[in-house]
Each structure stands twice: as structure tokens, then as C-alpha cells.
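User: Quick sanity check before I run a bigger batch. Here is a single chain. Can you write out its predicted 3D structure?
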Amino acid sequence: MTTFHPRLLPDAGPCAEALIREARRRQRRRRLAIAAAVVVLAAGTAAVASGWSGAGSRPRVVRADKSPALPALATTLVTVSQTRLPAGSFNLATGLGKVWVTGNGVTYAVSQQTGRIAATVATPGTFADGCSSGIATGAGSVWVTHGCRGVYRIDPRSGTVTASLRVADAGDAIVVADGLVWVPTYKGVLLRIQPTTNRVLGAAIPVGYGNWAMTVGAGALWVTSYYGNSTTTRIDLATGSARVLPDSISDVETAGAGSLWTSYVNRISPATDKVIASVKIAAWQVVFWRGSVWALTLRRSLAILRIDPATDRITGRPVAVGRPIRRGQSTEPSSLAAGPTGLWMLDYSRHTLFHLALRP
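Assistant: Done. Predicted structure follows.
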């Protein structure tokens, strides 16, 4: 397995957006190359080798936020805790009363109140690189992909693995939606798992090779494959029917306010597949939470911007996350998620989990 080295970022200054775009392109190319070798070794077939795919570039799964909207500027986003995590902590999900973080061979349960590790679950085969691990909550369990081989099912109360499902070429993303567990694979297809039986249900759905972003919202599952020229596929949750979106849509990272939102904070109408507004910023990741879009960006430090869907404009000032990034210092935010107690951002390079909440 190849281990990548986090990129070195210069002092961002006014060219932050250009740096983000270029860094993201380098990141995806590097990890696509890593995963190509992993998939060939794992599959051992010419069919899979002909469809090399990517792993681990900011794997993310989000669902439409249902919390009440907030009056503009009625509250301020502040950092309430930051927790040092062991090296290799990479992806996170919220739900079932905790924040869940994948690590090297383990999955951490983090307290939503203190931000500290409350329990450590042994999950052999979970890694940050190569066959990276996705994580999701739903159907009363925590679900973690591992080693391009399968999916662990974790009981959140006992903190134990209750099932290990064999899923060949399991990818670095996973989501629970409409009572099913959805897992992309490095064969370029999406599988559905029935939680009541822990078995794959129905036919595989073509969605393209990894890495992937998966978003639940607007009555569908939206799967973006970043392999080559990225493509986004709309999946009907009831029937599994798939429709590929136009090339003009770069990706779908979150859903809210009746719209889809891309990593460049373009607002998409799910009814017409057209861009209806653009905020003109480049973000590592965006989430919809408490009636606003929150974009993680790089300025003099990692910073979160708040976008008001009523005006499609940035509101308030950027909120710095962590200390400023010095020239030559590496950083790589790998995951941003929203939960009942706030936003959670995992900085992979600095091994730190940040908890941000709204305060009057």
C-alpha cells in the first residue's frame, strides 16, 4: 500500500481560491493513482484493471438538513473544542448520539458534548489511504467500509462490530437512505444493502469509478464520481433508476433550501439540472445546516464561510478554524459534517477534530 504525503501549502493570501483548485486537482490525481494500483491487486482481473478508480479524496456523505433556519447574523459560529486524534484519523459521520471517526484499524466514538474520544472500536482494515474507509450512520447502526473488502456494522450502544459484510471492491463512501445502505464499489457500480438481512438487494447501479461524493436530498441520492472528468448521477431511492446529470454540473456536495450545491458553491435546481446562482468561491467542502450553506475554505487559515440562501451571498465574516497556516506547513482538511450540536471538521494533516457551534 502506498502512503501519500500531505501537500505543502504556501502562504495563501489573496490567491487562496486558485490554490484550492490546484491542490484539489493534485490531490485527486495522486489518490487516483494510489487506488488504481490497489484495485488491480485486489481484483486481479483485466476487467477491473481497465476501469482504474480513485480512493479517499475527501470522502463525504451528507443528507438534507431539516433543522430550523436562523435569522441572518442572529448567531455567530465559534470553535468550542478541538481534540487531538491519533494519526490516520480521516473520515467522520454524525448520528446516534456521537461523532464517529475512522482511524487506522479502529473507529472512534467521540462525545458530541466534549469532543473527546468516548470509545474505540477495533475495525481491522480501515485506512486513510489506498483502500480508504467511508463511514455513515443509520438504521440503528454505524457502517464502515474497509480494505476494499467489505462493510462493518457497529452497534453504537455496545461499541462492538455486530456484522462484517463481504462486499468486493467496497469504496470509500457509504450512506444510509430510505431504509437501505448504499455502497459504491471500484467496479464503478452502486450496491444496496438491506439492513434487516445484511444482504445485497437488487441489481448493481452504474455510477462511475471513485472517488465519490454522496448526497441525500431533494427526494434522491446524488452520487458524484471524481474519476477522470467528474460525473454526477441521480438515483431514485425507491426504484434505483439512474440518470446522469449534464457535464456542466461539476459535482453535488450538499442539499438544502430546495437546491443542490456544488463544491464551487454553485446552486443547482434539482428539477432542471441548471445553475440558478453562483457564489464564486472555491471550497474544500460545503454542508447545509441550520438554514445556511457553510463552506470550508483556505485563507490565511482554514476558514468557514456562511452563505444565506435567501440572497445567495456570503453573510458575516469568515470564521477561522485552528491556527494560521505558516508558509511550508502542511494541512489537509478531510471531512466536514453537521450534527445536532454543531459543525465538525477533521484536519487530517494536523490530526485535529474541531467542533464549532452557534452562539448568540
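The longest strand covers residues 76-84.

User: Great, the batch can go ahead then.
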